[in-house]
Amino acid sequence: MLLKITDLKKQFNGQQILNGIDLSINKGEVVVIIGPSGSGKTTLLRNLNFLEQADSGLMEFAGEKINLAQATKSEIQMVRRKTAMVFQNYNLFKNKTAQENIAEGLIYGHGENAKTANQKAVQALKNLGLDKRKDYYPSQLSGGQQQRIGIARATVLNPEIILFDEPTSALDPELVGTVLKDIQQLAEQGQTMIVVTHQMWFARNVASRVLFFADGEIIESGTPVQIFEHPQKQRTKQFLNALADNY
Amino acid sequence: MNSQKIIGIIWRGFPNTIELLIFSFIFATLLGLLLTWVGLRKNRLAQGIATVYLNLVRGTPPLLMLLLAYYGLPVLLKAIGINIDHWTRLMFGILGLSLGWSGYLAEAFRSAYLSVDTGQIEAARSVGMKDQTTFRQIILPQAAMLALPNIENLVVGLVKATSLVYVIGLYDMYNQASNLSNQTAGLHQLQIFILLALSYWGLVLVIEVLFRLIRRRYQWLA
Ligand SMILES: Nc1ncnc2c1ncn2[C@@H]1O[C@H](COP(=O)(O)OP(=O)(O)OP(=O)(O)O)[C@@H](O)[C@H]1O
Ligand SMILES: [Mg+2]
């Protein structure tokens, strides 16, 4: 087991947003989280890499046990170095070129030397077919290009787990496929990941496990077939029916 | 009197004007950065001190600031054993303007700092950058660019404020011009003041070009 979370709780303004989450993830697993808006999916991911600090809960990760509410600076740093995040609105560094965006996490976050880091960045851009754009700033790139670079920025760090928060929901429909294919390819290479998405085909086809999340709790968890073909809980059925009605 | 001669006399004040501008801007920036840093501390006392200073400065007309620097500060400092009687008028002029503009610049820095997108900071953290590195690599450059339009306005304002140093008897372009006008019994007044205005416009134009160059250099701003 790579990551285990026990009884993670988080409130905002006295409102319980995460209501005791238990979650464990094995190496190579692709965990897809689906669920209604406002249910706490983003908050869960942000608590995993300490962009938010949980009120209580335990994390076991990379052989360490961490009290989520009282994590030390060095524990936080350790977790952030072994994870990476892909954001809904990309959050590429605006003052850095495409290449710098990929290289500088390695250089300034992981202490890798600049030469190797830049070689890796250039190679990553080549793999994406974006090497001609290496000196472009985010403002000069399309949303799809930005997000693919955002993914490269995460993968180049060689993290144990990548956290994806709705990586395609800010993209034009015709670009969604390209970006999801990138993620699918990563998954096939054995990259462990947690993906929050509303793209059901991705959940069906790429997930090794699907979590249905609502009101700050994991309502139901299982293989894509279990969740999509044979949901057990009323709440899951409602959600899936509502989705089906929209198509 | 021909225009060339008038310009010649006005521009005798140019060294003082430009020194006032450059040194006041430098000292105001340093003091402004310090104030911003102090004001953003979690420490309540530090915050309080910065707030009081900012409010005092903001509420004081620049002219009065110059007078206070020139007449008040030597007295105040003497009380604590520091003698600045030997300072030149230019130094007092720079001091007065620096105190004033440090407050305005601090406000510009602070609001720029606070308007750096939190997503940028979170992204930096997510790739493992420490707070100090995040500040240097991400926050500072972006805040500097966000502050640029305000800084430009403040510099242009400072150019105009340099003309107030006549109150402490310093001969800048404005004081040279008004002196000349008095000496010639107001005969060439309009001509003199139009030439003076053109001189300031020229200076402001140069500043605008400089800022445009900076903006172009940092094209990612778009
Ligand atoms: N920083 C915050 N301060 C206060 N409330 C917050 C904060 N972040 C999130 N919330 C609240 O927590 C709840 C869960 O938000 P979250 O963003 O985790 O939902 P989500 O499941 O990701 O929704 P979506 O599918 O729309 O992205 C929401 O009610 C939101 O208003
Ligand atoms: Mg969300």
UniProtKB/TrEMBL annotation, chain A:
Entry GO MF terms = ABC-type amino acid transporter activity; ATP binding; ATP hydrolysis activity
Q: Which SMART domains match?
A: AAA
Matches recorded under Gene3D superfamilies: P-loop containing nucleotide triphosphate hydrolases (3.40.50.300)
Please verify whether the record's keywords include ATP-binding.
yes
One Pfam family it belongs to: ABC_tran
Which controlled-vocabulary keywords does the entry list? Answer: ATP-binding, Nucleotide-binding, Transport
Describe the location of the ABC transporter domain by residue ranges: 3-240
This chain belongs to which protein, by name?
Amino acid ABC transporter ATP-binding protein
Species whose genome carries this gene: Limosilactobacillus vaginalis
Automatic annotation (TrEMBL), chain B:
Q: Which Pfam families match?
A: BPD_transp_1 (PF00528)
- In the UniProt record, does the keyword Cell membrane occur? yes
Q: Name one GO biological process term.
A: amino acid transport
Q: How does it sit in the membrane?
A: Multi-pass membrane protein
Transmembrane intervals:
20-40, 61-81, 154-171, 191-211
All copies of the ABC transmembrane type-1 domain together span 14-211
Provide the protein's localization: Cell membrane
Q: Which GO terms describe its cellular component?
A: ATP-binding cassette (ABC) transporter complex
Indicate yes or no for the key word NAD: no
Note the InterPro entries from the entry: AA_ABC_transptr_permease_3TM, ArtM/GltK/GlnP/TcyL/YhdX-like, MetI-like, MetI-like_sf
Which of UniProt's keywords are assigned here?
Amino-acid transport, Cell membrane, Membrane, Transmembrane, Transmembrane helix, Transport
Checking SUPFAM superfamilies in the record gives: MetI-like
Gene Ontology terms, MF aspect: transmembrane transporter activity
The record's comment on protein family reads: Belongs to the binding-protein-dependent transport system permease family.
What PANTHER family does the record point to? L-CYSTINE TRANSPORT SYSTEM PERMEASE PROTEIN TCYL (PTHR30614:SF0), MEMBRANE COMPONENT OF AMINO ACID ABC TRANSPORTER (PTHR30614)
Q: What is the protein name for this chain?
A: Amino acid ABC transporter permease
Give the organism's phylogenetic lineage.
Answer: Bacteria, Bacillati, Bacillota, Bacilli, Lactobacillales
